[in-house]
Amino acid sequence: MALHELHLIEYIAKQAASTCDSSVIMGIGDDCAVLQLNQDKELLVTTDTLIEAIHFDLAYFDSFSLGRKAAAVNLSDIAAMGGTPRWAFLNLAVRPGLSKDFLSTFLTGLFAELRPLGVQLVGGDTVSSLKELSITLTLLGEANRHCHLTRREARPGDLIYCSGTLGDAACGLYWLQAQKMQKKRLNMPQNLHFAAKKAIKRHLTPIPRLALGKALAEDRLANACIDSSDGLATDLAHICSQSGVMAQLDAKAIPISRASRLLCRALRLSPLKTALTGGEDFELIWTTPPQNEGQMRRTAAAILGHTPYKIGRILQGKGVWIAGKDISYHGFEHIF
Amino acid sequence: MALHELHLIEYIAKQAASTCDSSVIMGIGDDCAVLQLNQDKELLVTTDTLIEAIHFDLAYFDSFSLGRKAAAVNLSDIAAMGGTPRWAFLNLAVRPGLSKDFLSTFLTGLFAELRPLGVQLVGGDTVSSLKELSITLTLLGEANRHCHLTRREARPGDLIYCSGTLGDAACGLYWLQAQKMQKKRLNMPQNLHFAAKKAIKRHLTPIPRLALGKALAEDRLANACIDSSDGLATDLAHICSQSGVMAQLDAKAIPISRASRLLCRALRLSPLKTALTGGEDFELIWTTPPQNEGQMRRTAAAILGHTPYKIGRILQGKGVWIAGKDISYHGFEHIF
Question: Residues with Cβ < 8 Å from A231, sequence gap 6 or more?
Fold first, then answer.
């Protein structure tokens, strides 16, 4: 253990201590964290690794947003299962050249996301790397027994819904990349400027749909659920293959924001294709049996502040179909 | 998600499925793993990241041993808390140039360590990296309620014990590094050859002391415990600082193997200094009140096959002292 690692651990431990309640029998500073789970609960565990130059580019990712995003992508997995996040573990591999300030702002961003949800940082590992910053966050959450959403329960007849517009985060990413290649902020009219700002925000600081996931699970309003991390074509393909069903999407119903349309035109991209294949929107995609549709729509609208989007239907068969074409697994790759 | 990632996940999922029992409500293949914990149990969580060229060098680490070691270093943390390991999560960041064969042998090594213990691989994340292989394993385990060992309960008067010889893994590492620098196997007499083989094995495939840790915890035979991952001087310093006590080590009692003495002589190193500061032996270091010493020695000897080593005593004060010198936190850095 290098000495600066020890300091970093101490710093993290100090920041984390203020988030801990009595469920944490032992937090940072021992060989393991020791946690007390209520009975009648199931434990949910998710873990995501973000690698520099693969999942984020420090040319345009500020460390505060990076901290928020590391938390958000994991929180989104808990949301997709309908659970409540409880404890977090942070593994950081820090390469030379990253300042103390960078790391502390990263942590501030992480806590900005975790603290309002009552998620406690209780462990992890801090190591040196030579060339790449790598961030692994592991989240433990809980769900009531037999009350979590999976990818494998979609049934023919189910309606496919999603919680927000798709493709925005990808547009934000493409815009940032275009800016970087030109080594300057792109000159653009005011409306494009606002659109870019919105889309970039979707890429940098996605919002995990925790309240919605929980409501869908606890009120039994969804059969299957996933979060849109790898793009609709891929994420929905997971539901279809694991449930043994087919998804029929309605091209006209795919929700695309005005911002996304504007940016796609400027970038010469198809807005629909971007919505189908662009990743990291972290919206929920779920299937609901028709008899639950009314209640589900009311519940979701109350949480989201807008009606959720009906984008298609589950049928017997396999694949993810739109306009006569199977687009399963088309899409997003986390490689720049 | 790149397509080869998808294949790797499927491969891992297939390998992992055979290890899963009814505690795993949902394993690999959804947003989170869903686990069923018994009541009256505490949950232990530990996670370790190993980075290429920092924690391991593929010049001499074969992928099978690397898989075993990734498991062992985490299992050792569960051992140090006196727990039983249950579920594992593997995060792999795979750089270009690593073959399918390398990865599958790595997994075989990982399972060779996990499967005999009944530990089930139930989740993780598989991503691409550009430059470094990075491995994060997260282990969940359990302990009976109020029955885990910590670093913070050492008391003045306690005797300090360890489960095996110290410095061997460091000798193995130094030997491997010396061989690599000379770009060949070192010529050496037969006894040195055997010594090097033994020490290298200690570095490549350490043995987590799970049965011992569990016995110390459940029979309440230890006050504090840690595993020797960063070297005695550092690991014992953690116990001392967290317990608010001082450790007085007996230089003559530090257990050093014959192999380690031979190699240290050849490498012109001090065997004692290597034992005090060399990391990654993954022996347990614990403190026992004098009244429990007899029973502890019998229990430990029955498990280890040899009597554990008494290496010092806990006193009032602070620091880790040997021969009039405070050696707290001296030692091992995971940087080549």
Answer: A170, A276, A277, A278, A279, A330, A331, A332
* Residue A11: half-sphere exposure toward Cβ, Cα within 13 Å: 15
Residues of chain A neighbouring B226 (CB-CB closer than 8 A): 31
Q: How many CA atoms lie within 13 A of B16 on its CB side?
A: 22
Q: Count CB pairs under 8 A between chains A and B.
A: 227
DSSP, collapsed to helix, strand or coil, labels residue B54 as: coil
Q: Which residue has the higher pLDDT, A87 or A290?
A: A290
> Which residue in A has a C-alpha nearest to residue B280's C-alpha?
A1
Percent pLDDT > 70 in chain B is 88
Please indicate, yes or no, if residue B99 is contained in any of the structural domains: yes
- Output the pLDDT for position B61: 93
Q: pLDDT per residue over B112-128, tens digit each?
A: 999 899 888 888 888 89
- A36/B45 Cβ within 8 A: no
pLDDT in tens, B250-308: 999 999 999 999 999 999 999 999 999 999 999 999 999 999 999 999 999 999 999 99
Q: What is the pTM of this model?
A: 0.90
Domain match, B123 and B166 both: no
Yes or no, beta carbons of B143 and A34 under 8 Å apart = yes
The answer to whether residues B167 and B58 belong to one domain is no
CA-to-CA dists, residue B35 to A143, B85, B122, B196, angstroms: 10, 13, 9, 43
ipTM for this model: 0.89
CATH number for A123: 3.30.1330.10
- Check CB contact under 8 Å for A47 and B230: no
Residue predicted with more confidence, A135 or A17: A135
Q: How many domains does chain B have?
A: 2
Of A34, A138, A226, the CB nearest to B89: A138
Q: Which of B32, B47, B225 to mutate: most A Cβ within 10 Å? A: B32
Residue A331 lies in a domain: no
User: Do B128 and B91 sit in the same domain of this protein?
Assistant: yes
Q: What is the chain A residue with the closest CA to B41?
A: A36
Nearest residue of A to residue B1, measured between CA atoms: A333
Range of the domain at A305: 159-326
Q: Are residues B55 and B171 in the same domain?
A: no
